Amino acid sequence: MAESERRAGTSEEVTPPLQHNFMIPKKEINMVSDMAKWKRSQAYADYMGFILTLNEGVRGKKLTCEYKVSEPIEKLVALLNTLDRWIDETPPVDQPSRFGNKAFRTWYAKLDQEAEKLVATVIPKHLADAAPEVAVYLKESVGNSTRIDYGTGHEAAFAAFLCCLCKIGVLRVDDQMAIVFKVFNRYLEVMRKLQKTYRMEPAGSQGVWGLDDFQFLPFIWGSSQLIDHPNLEPRHFVDEKVVNENHKDFMFLECILFITEMKTGPFAEHSNQLWNISAVPSWSKVNQGLIRMYKAECLEKFPVIQHFKFGSLLPIQPVTS
């Protein structure tokens, strides 16, 4: 049966890949020399393809525009709402150090325990075998419970989680806008709440030389949203008034708003890279530059990728096609 025929029909009718052997994803990048394996892997090709497909899917579109919301999308939002509720149920504890509140470990332990069950609510019964594999990416996407930190590697795990759901046919081509605007955006809200509530440290941050302490993907997809905008240019995102008036429509501006809430002092000093980006003439140039920067600063950095896990859906094996 051809892949295209299998994918046709509603999500209920998708037959799982014949005799697919799901597995628990594991680390494969143990030393710097392993990075070459990653760059040649099917996982890298699929991950990057997924990011770029979504980048095209949201081009020129507002967060507030109309788009299709399927049942799996609704279920993913409900899953994220559960994580959000757990934050409310797990207040920070009194401790001497300001950063890295240990209550995060209590919150994380709950996710660790419930992740498979949560994922099982999103995928149809005949794909139940996929839940343990897919759940690993969900657990990896919220930060590290030992170090109480969060960074772009955790964000990548969430994108990988969504990519896996596409690979097993739970999410489909026409879900693209909802994946970014509804699911990923809700994920960002929950992560910001985690970062604020438990005062999480930035993981592997380059400080003032990095793009942002915590996220990267919403800058890529957010700049794509702004391509060909009739009057918002890159130079405008450092203008507080513009941000306040437009952040509900554009992910990029929502990120800027969060940075200005969290940091004090002149924007050019605390977010130098973003300040430089505001001088780029067009959003399409910003978008291309951010994709290049993402590959170089995140996907090609050993400290980030050493934590990435590989299974049957995102395999370490070299690209076949």
Automatic annotation (TrEMBL):
Signal peptide: none annotated. It is found in: Cytoplasm; Nucleus. Its EC number is 5.2.1.8. One of its GO terms (cellular component) is protein phosphatase type 2A complex. Its main location: cytoplasm. Keywords: Acetylation, ATP-binding, Cytoplasm, Isomerase, Magnesium, Metal-binding, Nucleotide-binding, Nucleus, Rotamase. The keyword Magnesium applies. One of its GO terms (biological process) is mitotic spindle organization. It catalyses: [protein]-peptidylproline (omega=180) = [protein]-peptidylproline (omega=0). PPIases accelerate the folding of proteins. It catalyzes the cis-trans isomerization of proline imidic peptide bonds in oligopeptides. Acts as a regulatory subunit for serine/threonine-protein phosphatase 2A (PP2A). Modulates PP2A activity or substrate specificity, probably by inducing a conformational change in the catalytic subunit, a proposed direct target of the PPIase. Can reactivate inactive phosphatase PP2A-phosphatase methylesterase complexes (PP2A(i)) in presence of ATP and Mg(2+). Belongs to the PTPA-type PPIase family. This is Serine/threonine-protein phosphatase 2A activator. It comes from Patagioenas fasciata monilis.
